[in-house]
Amino acid sequence: MSLFPKTLTDILANSSLARQIMPIESCKDFHDWVRIQPKIETHVHLEAAVSADFYKSLTQPESWRESLPWERAPFSDLRAFIMAWVDLSRAMRTLSDFEKLAEQFVYERVKENIRYTEAYISPADFSLIRKRFAIAPEIFAFDEVLRAYSRGLKSGLAKNPGFEVRLIVDTLWISNADEREIIFSALKSSRSEADFFDPQGQHYLVGIGLGGAESHGDLSGRLEFIERVRALGFRVDIHSGEGVDPELHRESVEKVCPDRVAHGFSAVSENFVFDANVVMCPVSNLLLKTYVGAAQKHPVFDLFKKKVPIAIGSDDPLLLGHTFSLEYAFLHALSGDGEDFFKETQKNARERLFAPEIFQRVQHFC
């Protein structure tokens, strides 16, 4: 049985036409080594980072009869991936589902020995976006979903000492002014509600994100919202430069002034990169076709060689059919950098965390 799913073996087969990829046994040994290492991850979406068995345990939507969301990779484009994400989200029908999902996420971190995680959550998808696009009949209040995630996280971490997770609340590029006001109100209230604090009195929410298709509609209103959220003590992480026009990516970075950029590869060929804190997800870029060049030419390798302090994330491992360890093994197969690449990118992640004081609780493992 191959170490990699077919989606990745096909990419490696095409790559081998241009260069000799690493022998599969070397990749397997490296994967097994990475898997047991204590790790840090700062780009992963909680909803798509649990096993398919979790979603199979829920009431499955009618749309799943045609095909299951996690069987659709590689995707024809980013929109096809978003439709799979939306379809996956339809299975969430009660607030207790969100608590169970967050708890299951912690369990999946334990299996991969990922000791510290900063993960995106998407409460807007189940409240504001469901209402806007009539995605599913169950429409939840944004603040209630936020509380449910935090309660589930608290329960999961209590059962798994030695692991820590903090959350980045995705506020979406496409949000409008009314929606952002709902989000802000919930974030502000979270600062004084017990559900959002761990037993040591530290908050589970550390930042906001801007995810989804990059958009500058109502940018002035969005910038005002970001500054208000920053005043509450939250950091800012934007999805940007994921296969969009390089100038749009540069404009996003220069105007938003984020604390972290997710993906950020589209302007590398034009000598622009957000080099303060960028997390790259090459497997995602290849399977979503946001990067369409040769796999071995993905900018992640050039930036690593130039000592740009990149980190690595698995993005949406359920929908992409891999794991954080397989992400590293795949990159090793293409480049042969192996342990040096792993250790350096993990160091980069560790030095740029949103909640270093929480990481201190588990740093002796790492």
In brief:
With 366 residues, the protein is α/β, with parallel strands linked by helices. Helices cover 46% and strands 11% of the residues.
Number of helices: 17
Please, how many domains? 1
**Share in β-strands:** 5-15%
Radius of gyration: 19 Å
Instruction: Identify the overall geometry.
Output: globular
CATH architecture: Alpha-Beta Barrel
| Largest sheet: number of strands, sense, barrel closure | 8 strands, parallel
Instruction: Quickly give the structural class.
Output: alpha/beta
Tell me the strand order in the biggest sheet: 1-2-3-4-5-6-7-8
The CATH class turns out to be: Alpha Beta
> First CA to last CA: what distance?
31 Å
Q: What pattern of helices and strands is seen along the backbone?
A: HHEHHHEHHHEHEHEHEEHHEHHHH
CATH-wise, what's the superfamily? Metal-dependent hydrolases
Detail the poorly predicted runs.
Answer: none
Averaged pLDDT: 95
CATH topology group: TIM Barrel
Helix content range: 40-55%
Q: How many E strands?
A: 8
Describe this protein's structure.
- The model has no long low-confidence stretch (mean pLDDT 95).
- The protein starts with 5 loop residues before the first helix and ends in a 7-residue tail after the last helix.
- An eight-stranded parallel beta sheet has the order 1-2-3-4-5-6-7-8.
- Helix 9 packs parallel to helix 10 (219-231).
- It is of the alpha/beta class and 366 residues long.
- It has a single domain (6-365), classed as TIM Barrel, CATH 3.20.20.
- It has helices at 6-15, 24-36, 52-56, 78-89, 95-112, 123-126, 128-133, 142-158, 177-190, 219-231, 246-256, 282-287, 299-305, 317-320, 324-335, 339-350, 356-359, and strands spanning 39-41, 114-121, 164-170, 205-210, 235-240, 260-263, 278-280, 310-312.
- It contains 17 helices and eight strands.
